[in-house]
Amino acid sequence: MYKAVVFFDLDQTLLNDEKQVPPENVKALKALEANDVLPVIATGRSYYELADIMAATGIRSAITANGGDVFLNGEHIFQSVIGEPQLVRFLNATAAQDIQVAMYSSEASALTGYDQLTTDNYAQVHQTPPPINPKYYQEAALSLLLIFLPWNQTGDQLGKQFIQDFPELTFYRNSHFSFDVVNHGISKGSGMSILLNQPALRGVPTYAFGDGYNDIPLLQAADTGIAMGNAYSKVAAIADYQTDDYRKNGIPNALAHFNLI
């Protein structure tokens, strides 16, 4: 039986600037498991993107696609598939304005096209851009989209218009280059609820680490929400505790503070 469950965002939380799990965090994760605490990744990324991180850490449970997919010990227990009518309407609207979109299943992804925003986005996360396949939505069950809009006045205005025009979807500003898009009501917090409804995890204390806007539902859903020292002010404001910066042992320090390691 698990004594607790701890959820970890990735970028600027569990990962360093090279998008690797630093040795101090790997050591902390191993100590958690030795103490019968279940570590869970909670990310906007898709499951297939986590292979190297899972191999480095031994973590096998994850909330991915901002809650669109949930995995427990490697088993895919939940998926929120974006419906084809919504996808077609969304892709037609973005194409009409020459806005690029990335489409994600739990196994692969594809882009509608390349531009500077797509190039910059994948460079930031140290990934090769997905291939171009505008019809990928016809081949796979999609739980996540990225709409590439810059984090400036023009991009934010366009984002607000898409949010207004697509109330059946939820938008998270998750980088300087894009919004994450999932079904309405889906979040890392909803993914946590689904995971915790599994018999082995019911009633187990929960902790969650994050720094970004899409982490707010996660931190609010946890018994103890922990903002990184580098978190946005709105994230820190809703947290129960703020630890140190991700570059300054923020995760090990907080786990020790709560006697989890």
TrEMBL record:
It comes from the Bacteria. InterPro entries: Cof, HAD-like_sf, HAD-SF_hydro_IIB, HAD_sf. GO terms for molecular function: magnesium ion binding; phosphatase activity. The keyword Nucleus does not apply. GO terms for cellular component: cytosol. Pfam families: Hydrolase_3 (PF08282). This is HAD superfamily hydrolase. It comes from Lacticaseibacillus zeae DSM 20178 = KCTC 3804.
